[in-house]
Amino acid sequence: MNNVYEVAQAQFERAANALNLDSKLRLILSQPKNELIVNFPVLMDNGAFRLFKGYRIQHNNIMGPYKGGIRYHHEVHLDEVKALAAWMTWKCSLMEIPFGGAKGGIKFNPREHSAQELERITRRFTHALGSNIGPDHDIPAPDMGTNAQTMVWMMDTYMNGVPHDRKNAVRGIVTGKSVTSGGSLGRNKATGQGLAFAVQAWAREHNFNLAGGDFTVQGFGNVGYHAAQILTNGGSTLKAVMDHTGAVRNLNGIDPEALLAHCAETGGVAGYARAEAISREAFFATRADIFVPAALEMQITAETAPLMNFRLVAEGANGPTDLDGERILLEKGTEFLPDILANAGGVTVSYFEWLQNRRAESWTEERVDERLLSKMNAAYEHMRAIAREHKVDNRTAAYMHSVKRVQTVYRERGIFP
Ligand code: GLU
Predict the structure, then answer these.
(1) Residue 397 covered by a domain
(2) 215 — phi, psi (to 5°)?
(3) Catalytically active residues, by annotation
(4) Which of 342, 360, 387 is the last residue of a domain?
(5) The domain containing residue 303 runs over which residues?
(6) Nearest CA to ligand 1 atom 8
(7) 272-309, pLDDT tens digit by residue?
(8) Residues 6+ apart with CB under 8 A from 344
(9) Which of 180, 289, 354, 368 is the most exposed, fewest CB within 10 Å of its CB?
(10) Per residue in 12-33, pLDDT tens?
(11) Which of 133, 151, 181 is the last residue of a domain?
(12) Is residue 316 lining ligand 1, measured as CB closer than 6 Å?
């Protein structure tokens, strides 16, 4: 099964069945609350106008304001953004942070545009979203193809639409801002850091010596790079990396810093001199203790899973595994740290950033990392306790913890009117 929204639905259904979730909640949670699609014109550098299609899907806000990233990618489509929005709801609930779930995106390739065009696209999109976003209503953040600069443009655009005496009060309209414009220390690396904390929790439970272990990474953006850098610092060996330009392998280890420098120069991992170029199949077939998918969704499938040989898949990407891919790897005895846990460091530190903005505070990086560590460990323990008690896999267990919390709140509040 390759339709990303159907996969998200099936993952939810599995937990819903295990929890005996009542039918009205299944009904409510089966679709997002709001689906906003905007088509907006932007002036290009050559004087022509181009029309862009932007999305903001608000899945659920019973636990708090809608929260989730904005993706710039040429394959962005409605079902994808719907799935990503639902995953945010489950991720925030699993992490026990007071947010609901949302996701947004614009269907275009940001690599084909100048910084000036990117700024105009971002500002026009923010304007088009208008009051559908807000620091206590729906809070965007970076995702694939966007970064701290994108968030600062969004913040500035939003601030320009509120009265002077409200400007500082709306600084938390987006998270993942640059530190100088009100972001949090530790946010940029947070997803990779959270992933490393989750992997460490897994290693502790299994008496696995990470310092003697090895791993491969798919995607070398913000998540893939930081995860690789932190795991390598801990003594693990990075054996292979694949991104949209190609795949490279060096069984003696790849230095993430050197690879990053190469990517900054050339735009991708292809052509990296201190490793051999390999095929996509050879990349997936490279044996390692841990595989970190940190690129697009639906990469571990009936086609690729049979090639794989890993003890653990730590999902840095959202939805990298389809149902067949998961079944095949589970049968082989591979364990998963599911996306809603493994990549939750980003939104968790987004929450810390939002708190700091509200209180006009700025925390040290040590404080941010410490709080992130305790959040990741708590979520890991919640997941593992359910997995042991109900004899289910980690993903189902993580969903069960998450869906149960949402169910409790629906029970308490009832359904309006
Ligand atoms: N885009 C990230 C994610 O998928 C971060 C979201 C956020 O910080 O709101 O979790």
Answers:
(1) no
(2) -155, 165
(3) 103
(4) 342
(5) 190-342
(6) 347
(7) 999 999 999 999 999 999 999 999 999 999 999 999 99
(8) 91, 94, 95, 194, 375, 376, 379
(9) 180
(10) 999 999 999 999 999 999 999 9
(11) 181
(12) no
